[in-house]
What we know:
By secondary structure, this protein is mainly α. It has nine helices and no strands. Helix 1 packs across helix 2 (about 35-45) and helix 4 (about 55-80) packs across helix 5. It holds the Pfam family TetR_N. Keywords: DNA-binding.
Amino acid sequence: MKTRDTGTRSTAEAQRRRILGHAVRVFAQGGYRATPVADVAAAAEVSTAYVFRLFDGKLGLFVDAVDDCYDQVAAAMLAGAGRTSSTNPEDKLAAMTDAYIELVSDRDLIALQVHATSACDVPEIRDAVRRGLAKTTETVAKASGADTDAVQRFIAYGQLCHLIVQADLFDIDSTWARTLSHGIRHL
C-alpha cells in the first residue's frame, strides 16, 4: 500500500501508528462516546473497514489511543529527566515539567486524558487510564529519584495544570482563577 507521506510500501504496524496519531487528535475533540470510527478513518485517509481490521473495534482503538497517549507522557518524562545532569530529584522533576509542557502544548494529549477519565465507567478504558497513571507515576519516581510525597505532588500538580489549561483559566482576571493558576506555566 502506498502512503502519501513517504511513497513507500507501508506495513500494518506503521499504519497502526499513523492511524493512532489521528485517533488521538480525533478522540481528543469528541471523546469516546461521540466519535465514530469513521471520523478517525477519514482523518487518516483510510477506510473504516481498514481501521476495524487493525484495531479491536471502536473500544480497542480508543484504548490503544489512550495507551499511546500515556506512552508519550512517560517517554517525555524520561527524556526530560535526561536533559539535566543534576542528580537532585527537584531538578529532575523541574526538567520533567518542562518536557511535559512542551509535549502537551497542542492540548490533544490533555484532552484525550480528560475524555478517557470521563469514560472510566467502561472497564477497558478505566484499565487503560490506570495503566497510564501507573506507567507515568513509576517513570517519574524512577527517573527523578524523588520520594513518594514529591512524586504525588508532581502528579497532582500536573492534573491541576490540565484543569487550568482546559478551562483557559489564564485568561480570567479573577482572584479565584489567579489563585489556581499562580506559579503555573504553560506554552
